[in-house]
Amino acid sequence: MGIQDRLIEDVGLRRGVSRLTPEKIETVVRSVMASEAGARLKAYSETCMRCGMCAKGCHFALSHPDDPSYTPAAKVAQTMGVLLKTGGRVDPGTFYGIAQLAYTECNLCKRCVHYCPIGIDTGFIMSMVRRICHKLGVTPQYIQDTAHSHSTTFNQMWVKDDEWIDTLQWQEDEARDEFPGLRIPLDKEGAEIYYSVIAPEPKFRTQLIYQAAAIFNAAGVDWTMPSQPGWDNSDMCMFTGDFEMMGRLKRRHFESA
Amino acid sequence: MNAAYQFVTGPLAWAAWGIFLLGSAWRLVAMYRLARKKDASAIAYMSWGYSLRSIVNWLIPFNALGWRKNPAMTIATFAFHVCLIATPVFLVAHVMLWDQAFGVRYATIPDAAADGMTMLVIAACLFFAGRRLAMPDVRAITTPKDWFALAIVLAPFLTGFLAYHQAIDYDTMIVLHVVTGEIMLAAIPFTRLSHMVFAVFTRAYMGSEFGGVRHARDW
């Protein structure tokens, strides 16, 4: 039992891996180890006593009670453990499994931290694995699409700049039928509350913005929403391992606020 | 045999304590330097309050989620760690050695109690070994390093127990006991046992991150 026994086809992972060689993987692993990996990774990898207590904290492990390869410690062993042990010199087929595990079998929820006596942060280790995957161009297709959307539009759902404002005004219009005095104030300087959403709201669940406006209206608070890119508070780049773009998103969002 | 005893309790003891103390200090300094260089974002969140809050809550049996969900492990690991440290430190025979060598005296525990505590340590080691063999999720992640660490810790207690009861040739057993104890000390900075040095800091960091960033508990 292990990740190699449950590989799934993903066009993003497959294409990314097709461009790899053991040398390329080794170069990137070594560069990440030399530049970004620090004391936390070193301490975690050295002091994990393999007690297995984390198994009870992980929903992936709990939902696969007969397969011990889903426990947090086992997932670290199959990904970062392999990269550390080999110095990154692994064949592309192995790396496919490492990437699939890091992206699809750990949510980075850090619940296992509540179960580990010495506080080993599996989520952090997995995000380091994802960082290596991103640098090697091996990311699942769907999440990479949302990351591309972030890079292009600063929101994860390819919502265009004018569509965003249009959507807000549309919801304000609709809501005014029910609450005549309701407004969705845009870019109001000095407002008490800055309200931001994630892009799936304007894209798929627009009524959520209506409902939030109704609540703000009933509460009578001084609030505002941003009209410019930076309005999306989500960050898929953090999840793909694209830390450069993650930094740009965070900066834009804070500047917007 | 007397010469062997003199050697293991003399030069070898100095070497073992030296490796343990200087090695641990060096590892801590090197790790701190690495953290300063590479983990600045983590150091920025380190907080005394949140660190101590997390450590204290994890030191209470059955308090943290991990303890509550693993009750047998909780009993075994608390008994193991308390006896592992208290027995050798407060054993009458050990305190006498400190007294002979440096004129240092302090409180001791009765031999009968120490005997029981030693058996607890051995029993806990057997429990840990049993888990590694019998529980599929523990067996799957067990490596030779984990068996090595367990053996290093078990050896001085087993030999100490046998020497105290004079079960097998005492002279050999006591030398073995001293040597295995010294191996354990010297291994602390460089094996899995280094969690003795680092665990308080990894826990402190998680306490700080959960307290300062997520405004949540980590136990």
Task: Please provide a written account of the structure.
- The complex is a heterodimer of chains A (257) and B (219).
- Chain A has 257 residues and is mainly alpha-helical.
- Chain A folds into two domains: 3-139, no CATH class; 151-256, no CATH class.
- Helix content of chain A is 56%, strand content 2%.
- In chain A, helix 1 (11-18) runs antiparallel to helix 7.
- The longest helix of chain A has 18 residues, at 161-178.
- In chain A, 44% of the residues are buried.
- The mean pLDDT of chain A is 96.
- Chain B has a single domain (50-212), classed as Fumarate Reductase Cytochrome B subunit, CATH 1.20.950.
- Chain B has helices at 2-9, 11-38, 40-43, 48-58, 65-69, 71-90, 92-102, 111-134, 136-139, 144-164, 170-187, 195-212.
- In chain B, helix 1 packs parallel to helix 2 (11-38), helix 6 (71-90) runs antiparallel to helix 8 (111-134) and helix 10 packs antiparallel against helix 11 (170-187).
- The model of chain B has no long low-confidence stretch (mean pLDDT 96).
- The A-B interface holds A 1, 36-40, 42-44, 46-57, 61, 66, 68-69, 71, 73-74, 77, 113-121 and B 31-32, 34-35, 37-39, 42, 54, 58, 64-67, 69-70, 73, 77, 131, 135-143, 146, 149, 192, 194-195, 198-199, 201-207, 209-210, 217-219.
